[in-house]
Design goal:
CATH class of the largest domain: Alpha Beta
Helix content: 40-55%
Number of domains: 2
CATH architecture of the largest domain: Alpha-Beta Complex
Bound molecules: adenosine-5-diphosphoribose
């Protein structure tokens, strides 16, 4: 069996961690693509990882390039091309510049890797993944946005930090857009099967929900010159791995809804089954009235940003 191929479009902060984890997990050969000005940088990162191979004992190949022909026959393409936010910016502030970038990336991925499973990470996520879908014409099961995996991981981390119990036993779900209007579903969160509502009082849970919604901004403020990169990279790798190994994991992700959750024509965070068929299913959870209202608010927000793409 030949090795799988994972192409990373954008070899900056997140891209380099994606390359590292892909190699360590031996998911397949890795191509890191960036603009010509950064070709030396991604070639250098790739060579550094190649020289790490004997220490870690992995055998996959890692290469850097600025030539899209090198992504031909990719099984998975993960896109982080674009600019990250700076303190004081919202993800939506990135739309103008990242929209131009994604249009160019989409044309090239369509041309060189039309059969790949594409995971978009660039922000504002829900609008950028929509733009990729529109420009590339990819089928809806092969294009997905990474957001809910990260937002849910943050939610889990805060629950684990507050209870003092293992992160491994926390299970929870965040729906909606990748922004301050996202909807952490506290009602359904559990630790080792025990509802979190029985473990933490309402005030604490409300504070955790709020921190989850603002978690990206908390890191942007601390870093001062960019946004989170370790946890976004691991989140995208979980999605890629579920596809490559046909794991059929249930991972909240931005998928094209066509009637699910009463949302039509938008990419937004919903629980997705990810397997060899790409997005194999969107699972619909029964929501209570408050949750439905919150989802409506986040969908309206996503819709307003998508409208600005004029696509
Ligand atoms: N094609 C390929 N790569 C590009 C292009 C392009 N047209 N335009 C920019 N890039 C590259 C940049 O040269 C840079 O190396 O994308 C990379 C982005 O890396 P960083 O600036 O370090 O940003 P990062 O922290 O990785 O975040 C990337 O993901 O989470 C989101 O909001 C974040 O939109 C941002 C993206």
């Amino acid at each position: 069996m030949s090795r799988k191929k994972i192409s990373l479009i954008g070899g900056g902060q997140i891209g380099q961690i994606l390359a590292l984890i892909s190699a360590q997990k031996q998911l397949g050969d890795v191509v890191i693509l960036d603009i010509p000005d950064f070709e030396g940088s991604v070639k250098g990162k790739a060579l550094d990882l190649m020289e790490m191979r004997p220490l870690e004992g992995y055998d996959v190949n890692i290469t850097g390039t600025s030539d899209y022909a090198d992504i031909a026959d990719s099984d998975v393409v993960i896109i982080t091309a674009g600019v990250p936010r700076k303190p004081g910016m919202s993800r939506d502030d990135l739309l103008g510049i990242n929209l131009k970038i994604i249009s160019n990336v989409a044309e090239n991925v369509k041309k060189y890797a039309p059969d790949a499973f594409v995971i978009v990470v660039s922000n504002p996520l829900d609008a950028i993944v929509y733009a990729f879908y529109k420009v590339s014409g990819f089928s809806k099961n092969k294009i997905i946005g990474m957001a809910g995996a990260l937002d849910s991981s943050r939610f889990k981390a805060f629950i684990a930090m507050e209870t003092g119990y293992s992160t491994q036993d926390v299970s929870c779900l965040v729906l909606g857009g990748h922004g301050d209007t996202m909807v952490p579903l506290t009602r359904l969160a559990t630790v080792g099967g025990v509802p979190v509502t029985e473990l933490l009082d309402a005030d604490k849970l409300e504070a955790i929900e709020k921190r989850t919604r603002m978690a990206g901004g908390e890191i942007v403020k601390l870093l001062g010159n960019g946004s989170a990169f370790f946890s976004p990279a691991q989140s995208a790798i979980d999605m890629a791995e579920s596809y490559l190994l046909d794991k059929k994991r249930v991972i909240p992700s931005a998928a094209l809804c066509e009637g699910e959750y009463d949302i039509d024509g938008l990419f937004i965070g919903v629980p997705c089954v990810i397997g060899a068929g790409g997005i194999e299913k969107i699972i619909e959870v029964k929501l209570n009235d408050d949750e439905k209202a919150a989802l409506k608010v986040t969908a309206e927000h996503v819709s307003s940003v998508v409208a600005e793409t004029k696509l």
